[in-house]
Each structure stands twice: as C-alpha cells, then as structure tokens.
Amino acid sequence: MPEPSRPGDAPPSADPPAPPAPVVRRGRPGWLGTTAVLCAGAVLLTAGWVGRRDEPVGDRTVGEVTRVGVRQGDSIPGYVRAAGAELAALPADGPSGYALVSFDGYLAPDRLPAVLADTAVVEVVARVPLPDRQTEVVHLPAQLLPRDVVAGMSALADRKDREATDQRTRAAGTTDAELRRVYDSGARVAAEEARAYRSGCGCVYAAVVRAEPVALRALAVRPGVRVVDPAPEARRLDRTVFTPPLPEQRDVVRPPVDTALVPTGTPVGDSSEAAPGVISSSPAASVGVGSSAPAPTS
C-alpha cells in the first residue's frame, strides 16, 4: 500500500526530468541585427515620405534653354519680319512678357531712358564697335537708366585695363613672333575698349525688357528701335539666351572679319558691313579708332 503524500512533497513521476535544452550561439555579432532593423526602418520611412509627395523631386526645367534673337547664318530681313509678325499677333490685353529690343545703331547710356520708356528694363547688350575687330559682347544688368549702365561700363573699363596689362606682359614674355603679334593686338583692343567704356561711349545696341503687348508695340515704332522680338515663352532669365543682331548687320548674321588676326598676305573677305566708329556720349570724350585696332580679348 503506497504511503500517503505529505504537503510539500513533489508529485510522483514515472520518468526523470529532462535536461535543459542547449543554448545555440550564432557566429554573427549582435550589432548586425540591430543595424538591419534600423536600415529597414529607414527604408520604410523614406518610402512613406516619397509616397506623400504630390510632385516629383527635382527641377523639370534643367537642361531647357530658350533662345531669343538670331543665330549665325540667319537672314536679318527675315528675322525682322518674323519678329514683327509675332509682335502684331500678341493679344492687346495679354499679360506682360519679356522681349528683345534691337537698336538700329549704338546708343550712349543717356539716350536709353527715352527710347525704352514705359518698359521695365532688365539688361542691356553692348560692345565697342571698332572697325574690322571682334570686340567682346557684354550683358549689363540695368534696372535704373542710365545709372546702372554707366556703372557697368565703369567696371568694364577697369577690367579691360587689367586685360591690356596682362596681354602686354604675355607679349613681352614670348619669343614667338606670331604669338607676340596676337598678344600686342589683344592689348591694343583692350585699351581701346577701356577708353570707350570709361567715356560712356555709344556702345549699347540692344536691351531686354518686360512690358505688356500695347507698350511693346509702341516701343517698336520709336526712333532708334530696329525690331522688338517678343518672347512670351521665356519664363526664367537664367534659362534664356538673348542674341540680338549687330546694327551693322543688314543681310546675314555672321561675325566681322578681324583683320588683326589675318596672317600677312591672306586676302580678307567682306563678312559683314563695317562697324561704325565708336560714338562717344559727348564730343569732348570721343575715342579715336584707327585701322590698326586690336583683336578681341574674349
């Protein structure tokens, strides 16, 4: 007869208790598991953030450039007719937009306020018109006329002085006769440009403005204005390139021959009408231009 159990005694069992299960230790460090969890969380957070965006990330206009004006080989009369037709087609009650205004000559800064009245001027395009020379075309910000243009020309004169000094130094440091000729020519043209800009020369031949169609059409018939090329498609100035025709170009767009860079004995073709002499802002500040004016510095 089995003995009755007492309080505190373990219950009877037919089998002995099983030994504890062995602990299996993996060779991968524990921090890898934590990293995996964090990475997964980051991916999920990023996916959720992107999924909530209504518009794609990035600038859709990158790489898109609007060109307004002429290109090499274009017909000048054809360009004038096309720009005039586009201007006439603008609705009278249309919104204000950008336009490229080309002049029929080179204007001094003090003439710009009257010619460009009733428009918001953004910038002007200028160059020193030395005969048979390719001088640098520059774009000057100009919201207040003529003050901003005069200030821009003054800064240009300082830069051209530095360029002339640099070209002279290069000419003195070379033993190559042809290379020295190029440097000397560059020094002369930079010096001519510096003197012209410092005098407030008649060097501005185009402007970029913003105005309503009615104001643009009134601008197109003013004395001194050659053509107004409306650019309603231009939305961002940093994505727009303005290339107005030179006043001396009458048939086809092409760069003038730079006689200073033509080797001796080479026949020179007439690539464009001759540029007029520099038109100074006042007779006392006239800039002398000789037939040996230098080559471009840009």
Task: Tell me what you see in this structure.
- The protein has helices at 30-51, 76-89, 112-115, 147-172, 177-198, 213-220, and strands at 66-69, 97-107, 120-126, 138-141, 204-211, 225-231, 240-243.
- The chain has 298 residues and is α+β, with helices and mostly antiparallel strands.
- It has a domain at 66-143 and 202-263.
- A five-stranded antiparallel beta sheet has the order 4-3-5-2-6. It has a two-stranded parallel ribbon with strand order 1-7.
- Helix 4 (147-172) packs antiparallel against helix 5.
Secondary structure layout plus pairing:
Layout: H1 30-51, E1 66-69, H2 76-89, E2 97-107, H3 112-115, E3 120-126, E4 138-141, H4 147-172, H5 177-198, E5 204-211, H6 213-220, E6 225-231, E7 240-243
Parallel strand pairs: 1-7
Antiparallel strand pairs: 2-5, 2-6, 3-4, 3-5
Helix pairs in contact: 4-5
| Radius of gyration over all CA atoms, rounded | 37 Å
The total count of helices amounts to 6
As laid out across the biggest beta sheet, the strand order is 4-3-5-2-6
Separation, N- and C-terminal Cα atoms: 121 Å
Structural class from helices and strands?
alpha+beta
**What gross morphology would you assign?**
elongated
The whole-number mean of residue pLDDT values reads 78
Order of helices and strands: HEHEHEEHHEHEE
Number of strands: 7
Task: Give a short overview.
This protein is α+β, with helices and mostly antiparallel strands and 298 residues long. 32% of the residues lie in helices and 15% in strands.
Features:
7 strands; alpha+beta; 298 residues; five-stranded antiparallel beta sheet; two-stranded parallel ribbon; disordered C terminus
